[in-house]
User: Fold this.
Amino acid sequence: MAILDSQSIKNSEWGIPDKGFDGNKKIKGRKRHIMVDTLGILLGILVTEANVHDSVAAKILLPRMKGKLPRLKKILADGGYLGDELIQLARKWLNCIFEVVKRSDEKGFVILPKRWIVERSIAWFNWYRRLSRDYEANMETSENWVLIASIAMLIRKF
Assistant:
């Protein structure tokens, strides 16, 4: 199983190209779209401008993962990834089920099943000062720093 989510991050003070404005979180910068397994280990990442919708980024990330996850059976995502096109792409490229976990109607704080794992992984990235903001001029470099941080976490934890 894989879990998909995004994180909006602010840019550093100096001028960086390729930045947008995330209207939902009121953040000017970039967005990290990550896919993790049930242990929180990073499987895939895509860094985009902050104004790119989650479902659009998933259409780019899913084909990137083709052939890399042969045993993957299911992908969980939040409500930002709604759409029949993503279900078809997951079936076509990864041969798995794409399921959107919606919020419950209950009042107050409710833990969504398995969704907390990706949120925890996003929180782990904040342990690394280089990832607390986006300091990179190039989006590929930003992706690579997340990969380096994930390798460091694997070495420390496992």
